[in-house]
TrEMBL record:
Pfam families registered for this protein in UniProt: DUF983
Residue ranges of the TM segments: 71-90, 96-115
Protein name: Zinc-finger protein
Keyword Transmembrane helix tagged: yes
Keywords noted in UniProt: Membrane, Transmembrane, Transmembrane helix
Record's keyword annotation contains Membrane: yes
Length: 150
């Protein structure tokens, strides 16, 4: 005999959560602030996320940014630098060493500057959409699915 009736599980999974302002959360994440209050720091180091917001105590350890920030940063940096490199090559025909001296430091600098803001935005999007561990129903839903083997 199951400990939970199907009706209680269905009611739990269909309950609505209050909407969160995605734009406001993304802007806060861009500046490395807590997506909930906008005052606390999201990061305790360069890319290390605080477990909880130091101001409002919002749990941030659930985030699953994984490989998304580097992917989006490579996409952005590539789309900015490649057209400039091509324009310089067509206009001036510099030697390869000039390209290396110009573009390698620029690419590295842009990457380091963009990594933290992009990761902040991704975490804020997860928070605003109740993704991964940011959904308070997540653990109960996972347990319900495991017990029913769906």
């Amino acid at each position: 005999m199951e400990s939970e009736s199907p009706k209680s599980g269905i009611e739990w999974t269909q309950s609505r959560l209050p909407p969160r302002d995605l734009k406001k959360a993304m802007l806060r994440g861009l500046f490395g602030r807590c997506p909930n209050c906008g005052k606390g720091a999201m990061f305790r180091a360069f890319l290390k996320v605080n477990d909880n917001c130091p101001v409002c105590n919002e749990a941030l350890h659930h985030q699953r940014a994984d490989d998304a920030p580097p992917y989006f940063v490579m996409l952005i940096v590539g789309h900015v630098i490649v057209p400039i490199v091509l324009a310089v090559e067509l206009a001036f025909h510099p030697a390869y060493w000039v390209h290396a001296v110009l573009w390698a430091p620029l690419a590295i600098a842009m990457t380091l500057i963009l990594l933290t803001p992009v990761k902040g935005v991704i975490i804020a999007v997860q928070w605003a959409n109740y993704m991964h561990g940011f959904d308070p129903r997540g653990d109960a839903e996972d347990q319900l699915l495991k017990t029913r083997k769906l």
